[in-house]
Each structure stands twice: as structure tokens, then as C-alpha cells.
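Agenda item 2: adenosine-5'-triphosphate complex prediction
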Amino acid sequence: MTSGSTAAQPSADEAEGTPPDSGDAAQEEEFQYRDESRLQAGGQMTTTTMARRLPVLVRRSLRMAWQVDRGATAGLLACQIGTGVLAALGLFAVTGTLTALISSGDITDRVREAAPQLAVIAGAAGLRALLGVTVTWLTGRLRPVLARAAEVSMVEAALGAEAAANNKPGYNDQYDIADRGAQVTPDLVEEAQDVLAATATLAAGATVLTVIHPLLLPLLLVACLPQAAAYVRAARVVYLAGLETSGRRRMLHKLRWHMSYMESSEEMRACLAGPFLLDRYRRLAVSVNVSEREAANTGAWMGLAGAAAGGVASAAVWATLLWLLVSGRMDLAAGGGAVFALQTATGSVRGIINGGARLVRTGWYVQDWQNFIDNAHGQAMVTCRGSEVLPAPPERFEVRNVIYRYDGAEKDSLAGVSLKVRRGEIVALVGENGSGKTTLSRLICGLLLPTFGEVAWDHKTTARLEPWEAWKHVAVAPQRFTYLPLTLRDNVTLGQDDTSDAALMAACEASGAADMLPDLRSGLDTLLTSEWFGGHQLSGGQWQRVILTRAFHRRASLLVMDEPTAALDARAEHHVFTGLRDLAKDRAILLITHRLANVAVADRIVVLDQGRLVQEGTYAQLTREPGLFRTLWELEQRTGGAPSPT
Ligand SMILES: Nc1ncnc2c1ncn2[C@@H]1O[C@H](COP(=O)(O)OP(=O)(O)OP(=O)(O)O)[C@@H](O)[C@H]1O
Ligand SMILES: [Mg+2]
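Presented output:
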């Protein structure tokens, strides 16, 4: 392991971009992107598939834009069509001007004849500039709305999916890649606009070219194909590199987050984790840089080959034009117009190729975004569960012979567990770390559906219930809770109906959160984070009181408390446990805790061992009979109790 001082700086080799040694390569292996089907699909994209996909992508981008801002989308379309029409007008006017000026006769007459055409050229150029400014304004208006709309669709899809989907292999990678897709959604629209504009200008140039000589346009198009193929290949290389490095880049993002954000900032210092993680970051960054640099080099070579092919193609077209003039197949006046039209058309074709290649690359990203949404919909709760709504708050919660295995896990976390809890009852769930307590609580709440067996609320299995309606009947104080950067009131109520001070204060009294109110500048409406101005940072135990307040405030039939007092001081813990019996009057309470002295409050205690239910009984029974509970309880008596003063 490198020392702290050397870890802070990359070695000369790393700085040069040399791939890390084999040990580091093994670490990177963990973060590799493994969705072979997506990599293969990307690898198989050709110019023909690109040509076929372009209209689909343009349509999709327009549909998305239309959904979020009809005015701006219609305005943009009108501008593009206007640009095309003005380009055609301008071109025809140029041809007319050249014809008039080159024709024989008095120069004053020729200029007078050309004057109206010149006015059209100037007018068309001025209007095109105006349309260009309008396009910039409308695009600026559309961009942020479109990106936010794409993000919201992702979050909606993610929230609508089963919580268990998070465990599916590749799901989080897919989310990350999709997020990039959401960010570039506005690019899709802009690039589609560019391609449309170039196509409109090409249409104008093409008309003029075809009128002048029918050979010129097909020749121009055929000549540009090699360049198009090279550009698409370059775009594909860059896209695939992005896909392959996505797992590593996600890790980089996580490392950056842990090293810089306030939640982990102290640990980073006290555990000397900063230099260690920074070293890891640098090494991983080097490996990503190497992959991306290789892709950039390959892309550049392909672009160079494409540009060379484009140059040769242009030369061929110009040579043909020269031959047409020299051989007398085209007169000089038409030749002048052809030069201008050819230049415009060549520029437009290049614009289509460049914009098209970018559009396809962005299209792949946006496809990734769409894939995630489709995948999340495939795992949507609406497709996995029923839509029944309980007529009244449930009285009994029952787990019947349940087996549960997390996706990707090698063994069952619960193996044939049955448990009942009724309103008015407190059931305690105990067992060693990893024995399945939290998993069982997730199942009884209907957050997870069992792999085998069933969970029923008043005889209705949770799989048949409409989940969001069902969760109105449960309140959870989870073991690992989320600090939301919201006010105390919002943190507790979270959009619930009863946001009155009276209801809030009752819950604060029960959890002990009321004690900290005098320190909060704006009382219930204090922002609970110092990451923003005016916010207040709570201690770990104070946060746990807020989480308990949230659970108590919901008047749900089932209250799950998973290690609810782990961070509380003795007085606060005592306060919560003495109030529990009162709370249980109209609730079923499932209490999970390692402090076995606290489970004396429960009517029944259920003991889990490696996913199996091994004991059940009252506190008095289980402390007397031999078994896991008694073993753990005796250990707690020996190590947990405060020694008597000697
Ligand atoms: N999201 C998950 N994905 C995969 N496996 C998981 C997940 N959550 C838990 N497990 C596994 O399921 C088993 C039971 O975990 P669970 O969290 O239910 O234990 P627990 O009894 O609550 O432990 P603790 O006392 O440490 O909180 C463990 O082996 C754990 O590794
Ligand atoms: Mg747990």
C-alpha cells in the first residue's frame, strides 16, 4: 500500500497515462460495464442503420419537444422551413443575378436587370439572420425544460418500479447511463434542428443544381458516402468508449462525493481516508482517460480518413463541373450559378453528415435513457401487483412460510418464516447481524414481495394490493434513514394530509423531538441542514428523533421500528419505550432491536437465526429457556450492563 505522502501525487507513469499495474487492473475490473448486449448493439451500428434511424430520432426529438413546449417547437419548425425557403430564394436570385450580369448587352442594363435579384439576395440573407437569432432564443427556452422533463420521466419510472429492481444486476449502471441520456436530450433536438436546417438548404441547392445539370446532385451525394461512413464509425467508437467506462466513471463520481461532501468529510480526515481514496481516484481516472484517449485517437483517425474521402469526392465533383463547362455541355452563365449552388449543397451535405453523426451518437444516449424507462416499466409495480384497495385499515399482518432471496444473492435471506402481528400488539424481532430482521420487515410492509410464500393483510396478499394505497397503512422508522434537506415540518409530514401544528407537536412529544425545538430558529419550519443558508445541522440522535416523529405522525395500522433508538441517549430511549404501549393501542408494532433489555416491552419476541425463525415467546419465557435469545441476553448482561462502582 502506498504511503499517505506518495499517494497524494500520481507517479510519472500514471501522469503519462500508462495503464495501472495488474493489482489496480483487478480493482478496475470490479467497475467494468458488463451489458454485452448493449455493447454489441452499439458495435453493430452502420451507416445504413444510421440513415434508417435518423428520421426516427428526429421524430422522437420533435415529439418530446412538442410535449414540453408546443410554442417553441412550432416556432423552431417554422424557422427551419423559413430558412430553407429563404435559402432557395437566395440561390435562385444568385443564379438569376449571375445570368443577368454575364449575358451580353449594355452593362447598365445588365445591372438594372440584376438589381431586383440583388435585393432578394440581401433580403433573404437578412431574414435568415433574423431566423437564426430566433432559433437560438427558442432553443435556449426549450433546452432546460426538455432536460428536466427527461429527468422527471426517469425518476417517475424509477419510483414506479419494484424496490427490488435496485438489486437487479446492471440496474444502477443502466440508471447512470440513462441519466447521461437525459442530460443530452436537448442536444438531440438541437442536432435534429441542425440536420433539418442543412437538409432544407440542401433541398434549395439541389433544386438549382438539378435545373443546371441532372448529373451534379447524384454525383455529389454518392461522393459523400465514404465520409458519412467514416463519421458514423468515429461517433460509434466514442459512444462505445463512453459505455465501457460508465461503471468506472460512476465509481469516480461516488469517490468524489464521499471525499467532498459534509456528511463524510470528518471521516475522510480522521481515518486518513482522504489520501487513500484520492489515490484510488487518480488511478481509476487514469484508466478512464486511457480508454477515452484511445477512443478519441481512433475517432480522430476515422474523421481524418472521412475528411480525406470528402476532399477527393469534392475534387471529383468540381472536376465534373469543369468538364461540363469545357466540353460545352453547360454554358458559362449556368456554370456561375452551378459553382454557387454546388458550394451551398456541399456545405449542406457536410452539415448533414456532421450533424447526422452527432445526432446518431446522441440518439444512442437517448436510447439508453429510453431503455432504462422501458426496463423500469417492465419491473413496474403496476405490472407485478394487483390494484385492490383495502376497505378499512387492516387489523392483522401475517407472513406465511416466506422465502426471500435478493436478486443476485447466492442464498436465501429468509427461509420459510411465518409471523403474525395484530393491532394492539407489540412484536419484537431479534437476532444476530444478517439474520434477516430488516428483510422480514420489508416483506411485512409490502415493500418487497416474497420469492415464495405470502404476506397477507387481513387475508389479502400484499401482491394483490395497490402499493401506494397500501403503504398508507404502514409507517417505518428504518435502520438506515435518509436525511432530507427540508424543514422539520416537511421532513415529518412528507405531503401527508394532516400538517397541523397540533398533530406535529403530538408526534414530537412522543419521539422526544420536542426537546430540541427551542434551539431551532424557525421552530417546525427550520431547514434541517447547514448546507444552505439559514439551515440548522442536527446531531445523529436528533435526526433519529425526527425519523421517529415521522413514523409516529403517520396514523398507520402497522408501525415498524428498526433499531429506533440506536443513536438515542438513555433518557430519550427511556422516553420512547415507555410511550410505546400507548402507541400500540391502535397500531400493530414490529420492533427490531439488538438491545435485548428493551424487548421486555413486547407481547411476543421472535428470534431469527440465519433467515430462520428459531424461537418465539415472551421475554420471561425466552430469558429462562436455553436458546439463542438467552445466549445473546446473557452476553448483553455481561458486557452491556454498567459495572457497579467498586
Ligand atoms: N439489498 C440487499 N441486497 C442483497 N442482499 C441483501 C440486501 N439486504 C440484505 N441482504 C442480505 O440479506 C441478509 C439479511 O439481511 P438483513 O438486513 O435482513 O439482516 P438484519 O437481521 O437486519 O441485520 P442487522 O442486524 O445487521 O441489521 C444478509 O445476509 C444481507 O447480506
Ligand atoms: Mg437490519
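Discussion summary: The first strand starts at residue 396 and ends at 404.
Owner for follow-up: CH.
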